[in-house]
Amino acid sequence: MIFLEHVSKMYPPDVHGLRDISLHIQPGEFVSIVGQSGAGKTTLAKMLIAEERATRGKVTIGGWDITHIKNRDVPFLRRQIGVVFQDFKLLAQKTVYENVAFALEVAGITGKRIREVVPQVLKIVGLEEKAYRFPRQISGGEQQRVVIARALVHRPKILLADEPTGNLDTINTREIIELLQKINSFGTTIVLVTHNREVVNSLRRRVITLGQGKVVSDHAEGKYLLPT
Amino acid sequence: MTIHINSWRIIVAAWKHFVRNIWLSLTTVFVLFLAILSVNVLVGVNALLMNAVSLLENKVDVSVYFKADTAQGVLDQAKFFVMGLPQVRSAELVSADQALDAFKKRHAGDDTTLSALNEIDGNPLGATLIVKAKRTSDYTFLLEALQNPQFNFAIESKNFESHEDAIQRVRLIGQSVRSFGVGLIAVFAAFSVLIVFNTIRVAIYTQREEIGVMRLVGASNAFVRWPFVIEGLFLAGLALFAATAIVAVSVTWLEPHINPFFDGQAGLVEYFMVHAQQLLLIQGLGLGVLVALSSWAAVGRYLKK
Question: Are A7 and A59 in contact (CB under 8 A)?
């Protein structure tokens, strides 16, 4: 599903974001990417949605080589990958319903189809009752669920979650992780970028640890390794 | 089908954005409104100044006073000659009797002057030829043409010298008003362009995060950009409508108040009525293009990131 072959990212003049990383993530996997701040987690996540381009190496997603993807093709890539961010990134001027619908509107999906799909997805994340509220009128946990609903609305094969629980309390964190597990059980590949040790350890799934831009460890049923 | 759906969505998105950011929208409309209004005020002031110059030019003439005993044939010949000149707009021959009547009317309450007039035997006044040129610049030529020997001998006096200065002054004022007015409008238009461009930039700057989010969920550059451009056109349309309404009301109210300064005909309403289509077209197109380009460029800045 996701192939990274000898990928490096350098920022001028000589800062290394990633150094010669090679990874293969299978379809349907739930992978946690962990590491300290500056380890390269976010750079890797941004590379998967073409917000950053590799300086060297090759990035392939679902057979599509996106290493040198053209700007005009980026929207099409982003419609294939659901993305969840720590800071939600919701459109403040749109309601919950409109935020989710927007992801379909930009793809030119018909209004009839949008009216069918959006309520279904809002039901999955438990927000059908708050569809016409604005983001400022709901809690942080609910906002994150809106983001997940928006990410799911295209039925993506991959869901990339970059620190999705970073701004949430313990209860909301658990709910979001359970939601991600539920989505994974439907067959969606989940890439979870986090530094939350409890979350990673409770999952008992594959863990890739990054350190100074390199893969430090990659275990099928891993744990969050404490820095040495 | 997709283009049709997207076009409609872009218009709806622009409208919703306008309504949900109503204070930012109204502030932007207000700035655009002031820009159009300032240009219209200058256009109006320029029209008034032009009218004033035109009135002054109409008041300028050359009066030729003939000797009291000048034969009617000579007078007719002078008028015929003057009327034949292409530079002449009108020539009026005031006979000696008419001149006397006018003099008596002018001094109706002045017994001293009237009794002095009675002392003189007969009509002391001669005929007068009042000549108006088409353009003030023609008077210099007219003054020379009136030296014609066919009737020059019968001319008692001419007010050429005193008019020559006035004519020159009016001509200079006219030219200055025209160039100054056009220059001032150009300067104000340039300021307006800068103000409008920066207002749109600031309005879009406040929404830069939203633009980033749109792109992250897969919106194409066009899908992000066009709602802002269309919203800008909404704002421009509203500003133009408001400015037009205020200008129409103000000009209608102002006209009767300033008429006395322009011989009862300021001509402001007439000027705006005659040039309404032209003004609306130029201002609408100018503002529309400016706002659309500003929005396009301002959004583009965040699309490159």
Answer: yes
Residues 6+ apart with CB under 8 A from B243: B33, B36, B37, B40, B283
Dump pLDDT digits (tens) for B254-298.
988 888 888 778 888 999 999 999 999 999 998 899 888 888 888
Q: A92-139, pLDDT tens digit by residue?
A: 888 999 999 988 887 788 889 999 999 999 998 889 999 999 999 999
pLDDT at B195 over 80: no
Cβ within 8 Å of B, A 51-80? 51, 71-72, 74-76, 78-79
Judge: A106–B217 Cβ closer than 8 Å, yes or no.
yes
Residue A76 forms beta bridges with which residues? Answer: none
Q: What structural domains does chain B harbor? A: 2-56+171-303 (no CATH), 61-169 (3.30.70.3040)
State the best of A99, A106, A152, A162 to mutate against chain B, taking most chain B CBs within 10 Å: A106
Give CATH 3.40.50.300 domain extents, chain A: 1-80+157-228
B97 exposure class (CB count in 10 Å sphere: 0-12, 13-18, 19+): exposed
- Tokens 């025209």 found at: B178
Residue of A70, A83, A86, A94 to mutate when probing chain B, most B C-beta within 10 A: A94
- Which pLDDT score, from 0 to 100, does residue B160 have? 57
Structure tokens at B183: 């220059």
Could you say which of B2, B17, B21 has the minimum Cβ distance to residue A108? B2
Chain center to CA of A21: 19
Query: Looking at the complex, does the CB of residue B222 fall below 8 Å from at least one CB of chain A?
Result: no
Q: What is the pLDDT of residues A158-182, one digit of tens each?
A: 999 998 888 888 888 888 898 899 8
Q: In this predicted model, what pLDDT tens digit does every residue of B159-194 receive, in sequence order?
A: 755 555 666 676 677 678 778 777 877 787 777 777
Strands (E), chain A: 2-11, 15-25, 30-34, 56-61, 64-65, 81-85, 158-162, 189-193, 206-211, 214-219
Identity of the amino acid at A205: R
Chain A contacts of B2, Cβ < 8 Å?
Answer: 108
Indicate the residue type of B187. V
Write down the pLDDT at residue B252: 92
Residue B184: C-alpha distances to residues A158, B54, B109 (Å): 61, 20, 49
Inter-chain Cβ pairs, chain A and chain B, closer than 8 A: 56
Going by pLDDT thresholds of 50, 70 and 90, the confidence category of residue B237 is very high
Q: Which CATH class is domain A1-80+157-228?
A: alpha beta
The Cα–Cα gap between A90 and A167 comes to 14
CA distances from B38 to A127, B26, B183 (A): 51, 18, 14
